[in-house]
Automatic annotation (TrEMBL):
Protein's gene: C16orf89
Transmembrane segments: none
Name recorded for this polypeptide: Chromosome 16 open reading frame 89
Keywords for the protein's UniProt record, in alphabetical order: Signal
Keyword Signal part of the UniProt annotation: yes
Pfam families in UniProt: DUF4735
InterPro entries: DUF4735
Amino acid sequence: MSFPVFLLLIFLFKSDVSKSEADMRSIIISALEKATFFLANKYRDINLDAVFGFHVLQALENWASEHELLSQQARVERLVKKLSFLIEKATHSLGQSDPEYFKEFEPVLGPNFWMLPHSWNQTDSSLAYSVFDSSSCFTEEMSDKCFTYLLGTWKDNGKPCVVTKACRNIMTKFGCSGYPLSHQLFYFMFAAMKGCSDHLFLRTQYYKNIFCASMMKINLVIESIGFTFSSRDLFMENIMLCGMSGFSDFYKPSWLENILTWQKPEEGCFGKPSENSEHPSRVKDQEQLLRRVKRREKVFADGCSSHNTAVAVGVLGGFLYYY
């Protein structure tokens, strides 16, 4: 499972913010307001990924800079108030519709679970994999189980931070691509949030450096083939997770500009574009690199995607935090 959007959006900006930066923040806030409109219409039906993604936006209430434009502060305050009401309803609906899955990952819905980077790094392209594994590396079910061992939800009153031999092997396997690669990074992020002390996690930064260098390589491939729809979800997930891991080179202005164009203007969601707006892939040999694993996804008749929208919200929040 991939829990997108898990950035705690704490906006502490500099006093000398330029007008262009303020304008860009306003544009991003507008996109988040539209995404909240999607939540208002679909809160009974979205999946856990989306519930958590919007849950994170509640941290907008931590907008605490005296240097910000009052108009932006007011918009954020209204957004947070609306989100609080909707998320409570969405969480209740999810607990009823998928109680077992909800119970396994409920800890990540906690208000203090996620931490933001306090310093920034750049990826080192020399650390990226030269060759990616052509297989899927491991299944979503396998990664889900490893996550529950860390969270302590693998059984009632389970011990957290359990690292099994199987999980150690798959989560440190080199050469993985696509969602298995982002899940490997997620595993080390979960461990950090839980404060797990297994000796494996003494090398967390080592693995993060390799994983995000490889995820950057994948994103550059996605960019080179024109951001085809099938690659956008993974592209944004890589930005969200590596940005949250402190790699600032994922916050490219040109990438933000493209992501903003993918939002459906009326629905407020992110998802399948209209038939005539999608460009065919020009690099067929890269399809295996961008392969995604099976996941709990919810796609609506209007083309809106729960997972796609949740990841996009997390990415937009990450850009705001970085600015």
